[in-house]
Specification:
Blueprint lengths: L1 H8 L9 H7 L15 E4 L2 E3 L1
Antiparallel strand pairs: 1-2
């Protein structure tokens, strides 16, 4: 529990998110024109933010 709390406070990456896979899939979205940067973090436990 403490580890999860610290991860949220430091806005760390959620453990169940594969950033490499996400980076690979995002450009395949036809309505997406341009991706400059990808920031993904946990704002609360169980609620990731991109």
């Amino acid at each position: 529990m403490l580890k999860q709390a610290v991860n949220v406070l430091l806005e760390g990456k959620p453990a169940d998110v594969n950033i490499a896979e996400l980076r690979e899939c995002l450009p395949k979205i036809k309505s997406a024109v341009y991706f400059h940067d990808l920031d993904f973090c946990s704002l609360t436990s169980g609620c990731p933010s991109a």
